[in-house]
Design goal:
- This protein has 161 residues and is an alpha+beta fold.
- Helices cover 25% and strands 17% of the residues.
- The protein is globular.
Length: 161
Amino acid sequence: MYELNFEFPLLDGTMKNLRDYDGMVVLVVNTAGRCGFTPQYEGLQELYMEFRDQGFVVLAFPCNQFGAQEPGTDEEIRRFLDENFTVTFPVFSKTEVNGENANPLFRMLKEAAPGTMGTIPVKWNFTKFLISRDRKRVFRFASVKKPENIRMAVAGEISRT
């Protein structure tokens, strides 16, 4: 079972315990504002709006480890999102997803759902991890997989009891 027993700061500095999402289907995404995949924020918001009332949440974690495509401060990231996207799901403080200083949530998710051919590291921005409501399953989706193309996986996890 994959426990979400972690606490991280949101972009505004407020601490958020991921146990607040117990009983929900959770989609964790590493994001970046200067990436070719940045328009996926729109699709993530659409998924969130469609399924949030059914126990689904998107958790975004900005990361600057891939092509230095998220160089700003947390305040700059929030301003960029406010000016360019309607994002109402939680966005956390900038973090690392690979390496020695990797966020412990991402360490757990990478081990739970290895990538192509069993690779562990996150390969690029907008890698998505879908965590089942019962915390027994984790699915990984590559950056190229648009949010609308994982809709059926999200719906399937939501419909499980």
